Amino acid sequence: MGEVIQLGDISIEVTRKAVKNVHLSVYPPAGHMTLVAPTDARFEVVRAYAISKLGWIRDQQAKLLSQAREAPRQFVERESHYLWGRRYLLSVTEKDEKPSVRLDHRRIFLTVRPDSSRQKRNEVMQEWHRSLLHQVVPRLIRKWEEKLGVTVSGYFLQRMKTKWGGCNPRKRNIRLNTELVRKPKDLLEYVIVHEMVHLIEPTHSERFIALMTEHYPTWREARAELNELPIAAEVWREQAGTEGLRQQKLEGSSTRPPFEAPRASPGRHPISKRYQ
Ligand SMILES: [Zn+2]
User: Fold this and answer.
1) CATH topology of domain 135-249
2) Is the pTM of this model over 0.70?
3) How far apart are the CA of 271 and the centre of ligand 1, in A?
């Protein structure tokens, strides 16, 4: 049973780890709070730290609330949809043929069967998003395997509520949030680099920060941008589990071990983590 700091209506989940400093994190969409504290720090000291950050906590939660106001997509004509950081207008055609999506310089053309539900339209778009990610992710992983001198056994595309990515250093796989398809491509690359650096250093230690700074000097800016971009309300409202987990082996990886669905692992972390 974990420790909890209760400050009025704010609950903060405390985790003990072999760290030097206290790390406080606020998660979308509801502003869930966690605090990582040094193993031997007294509870009262940790609590006093949390109280000293109350102003910051309130600011972050207010920010999340305003971001969460983005309305769920309805997949109707002329609706805005983001792709690689650019806004497109949706154009919907109902036709009795296999659903499809195509793109021109300013519009996304969604073709669905007559009377398709919002859910169905969403599924077609999601599938398309995955295919777009599969087109770019393997190349980026290879690029960084070479630069970092690490090997990734494979990657998962997954809808996640609180994380942009994840890494299982033991199984050497990484997870990426499918929502990244809405963000500029360099932010996807940043998340991939972040997760791959965890194959060298599993925690957000000083060594990790030094490695990020060496290989991806603009990581702070990338992280800030990722934390600020609007969160898609629709994603957080739907059952994340309905699609299950898809796996994607990198090509030419026949000697690599088969995938298993990732479980809670030491590599799980938010990349929205802020260093205090
Ligand atoms: Zn991390």
Assistant:
1) Zincin-like (3.30.2010)
2) no
3) 5
